[in-house]
Design goal:
By secondary structure, the protein is of the alpha+beta class. It is built from 4 helices and 18 strands. It has 2 domains: 1-24 and 285-313; 27-283, no CATH class. Helix 1 runs antiparallel to helix 4. The two termini are 30 Å apart.
Length: 313
């Protein structure tokens, strides 16, 4: 934006920026997504192939529930929901390239019970320098033994396809969705984890986190993290972080919002934006950043108005 030399132009420009910041509307956020099959793609924007679900128990998660990031899925969906094969669309998605982060490529993902996951170069977890993504580190929550993935207290991963995040950095929310815009996607789901009382019954708030890994080819990928909570008004302000080879790429202690998606874009092995500057949640500056911007712009407006007053005198 160009700030004019005259006081009037300067004030108008600064005011315009203030208006853009104050009235910026966050993107409509998709909350925790209820499971659905590929036939719902047109209205949901994603589909999950049910026979690709891996359900993990507590001991597996303690060691790191390991899954390959290389996969292919295929099938069909019924866009007019008429139960016939007329107008059905066949799909085939291949994720054949390892994901790149830092200067290394990774072909496996490891899930842990405490809302965290890591990338690995082998079928084992916990290697020194493995990239770790800590999404909501809360202690004392339990994983329920179950054979049904959607049950409360379960942790699982599944494969599918999604429209992902367009180039402007926000998700596409307008149905009907185009299958040609979909990319291979892996979903990691911590489903309503809570503490258990002495009888093994859930007690206190339950927390859910879904992470969608959108595979874009050539090692590039996007992360979409969504939070859900029951039995409380908000999340604790625990530190969320992304650490690669001991270097912190992102860190925040601001409480996660249940009505926001949080996006992280990785290109050429780097977190887009670089260094420790994270992509802002849903494209909106964090409160501290917004306050500094508003204060600076208000000062700029006052300063730009002073020459005009002198000339009038």
């Amino acid at each position: 934006m160009r700030i004019g030399t005259g006081s009037r132009t300067g004030v108008i420009s600064a005011s315009a920026v203030l208006a853009l910041l104050v009235f910026a509307v966050p993107a409509e956020a998709r909350r925790i997504a209820v499971d659905f099959d590929p036939s719902a793609f047109e209205s949901k924007g994603a589909g999950w192939v049910f026979n690709t679900i891996d359900l993990y128990n507590q001991s597996t998660l303690d060691a790191g529930a390991n899954r390959s990031l290389l996969f292919n899925i295929s099938g069909s969906y019924d866009p007019d929901f008429d139960g016939t094969s007329d107008n059905d669309v066949n799909f085939a998605f291949d994720q054949a390239a390892a994901l790149r982060l830092g200067g290394s490529d990774y072909s496996f993902v490891c899930m842990f019970a405490n809302f965290s996951f890591s990338f690995s170069q082998s079928s084992s977890c916990g290697g020194a320098g493995d990239p770790t993504f800590s999404l909501l580190p809360i202690d004392g929550l339990s994983v329920v033994e179950s054979t049904n993935a959607p049950d409360a207290g379960t942790v699982f991963s599944t494969l599918g396809f999604s429209v992902g995040i367009p180039a402007d950095g926000e998700p596409e929310f307008s149905a009907p969705y185009d299958i040609n815009a979909a990319v291979p996607t892996m979903r990691l789901w911590w489903n309503n984890l809570s503490e258990l009382d002495g009888s093994g019954n859930p007690t206190g708030p339950s927390y859910s986190v879904q992470t969608f890994i959108y595979f874009l080819g050539n090692g590039d990928f996007d992360l979409d993290v969504r939070y859900g909570i029951e039995g409380a008004t908000d999340f604790p302000g625990v530190e969320r972080s992304i650490i690669v080879d001991g270097q912190t790429l992102f860190s925040s202690t601001n409480p996660a919002q249940a009505d926001d998606d949080y996006f992280y874009r990785f290109r050429g092995g780097d977190l887009q934006g670089g260094g420790t500057t994270p992509p802002p949640p849903t494209g909106v500056p964090e409160p501290g950043t917004l306050t500094l911007l508003l204060a600076g712009l208000a000062g700029l407006a006052v300063r730009l108005r002073r020459p005009g007053r002198r000339s009038q005198a």
